[in-house]
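Tokens help. Consider this.
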Amino acid sequence: MFHTLRFIPVAFGALLAACSASPPPPHESVTPSHAAAKAVTAAPAPDGTDNPGEDANDGSFPPYALSNTEMREIRSDRLGRRYPLLISLPRDYATSGSKRYPVLFITDVNYAFPLVRSIGAMVGDKGAGLEDFLLVGLGYADGDSPPYSRRRDYTPTRNGPRDAVPDESGRPPLHGEAEAYRRFVAEEVFPFIEANYRADSARRIFAGHSYGALFGAHVLLTEPAMFERYVLSSPSLWFDQRVMFERERRYAATHADLPAKVFLSIGSYETVAPKSGDPRYNRTRDMIADLRAFEAQLRARRYPGLQIESIVVPGEDHLSAYPAAITRGLRWALPAPR
């Protein structure tokens, strides 16, 4: 069961102000309200932390509203929580009749939604380089901070990193509910979107970064046909002693095929280089090596329905890689029709 609780235009100030979080450990990686709309803050980083430079707004100026963009709030009977869904419509949606659109679902919306929406509108000649698409942002649970919500919902096991710290509420970190969250998306979000928008159910695309991409890998190895394409940016494959490698081995033992198209990306600084002294390099986790090993393991299976592309984005680290990765991922997933 799903329920629409609210439907309002998305106010950009409210969207950004909705995130308030203490910084989680490196690479661990909303509900807008009237009060939130009175403050304009810097956009959170892709790992769920706040950027510096908050600028107070005393409420005398109206929030900036994103055009062709809506917010819905959905209550999950399965999870007993409410989640906002941010939806950006194609520019011609109101005049395109019965046309149905591919749907891009993204995680970590406080950072990713305005970013992906803006990039999608500019690729090529003001968006002409892409096929028109519906953008659906999967928001953090109502009442939870971004770190708490994403740790719980995006990770596949309870065995989170030992150095994970509580969020500002003081609650200890909770991990391992990715499967419950996946079923919420499949059984409650998908029917809601397809009942209320002209969505092409055969063309669902997933995009996530860091823990969001780890969640995408979980979906890929649990129900690969849930999405037609996967854009996985800097996935946290190190999680729980590289548990996703074991998950893939278990999948391969009982499946002859993995029908999906996968785009893997990572920043060139997401490796370990102790002699360089450059702080952009990871301190302990060689995420490039993990990504290459995961790709090699998938390719070695020779799944007939699996297509993989991968890139290392030069000059980018874990927190800066996503804009370049999603630009390339959009071109790969949604090229303009010829």
Observations:
- The first helix runs from residue 12 to 17.
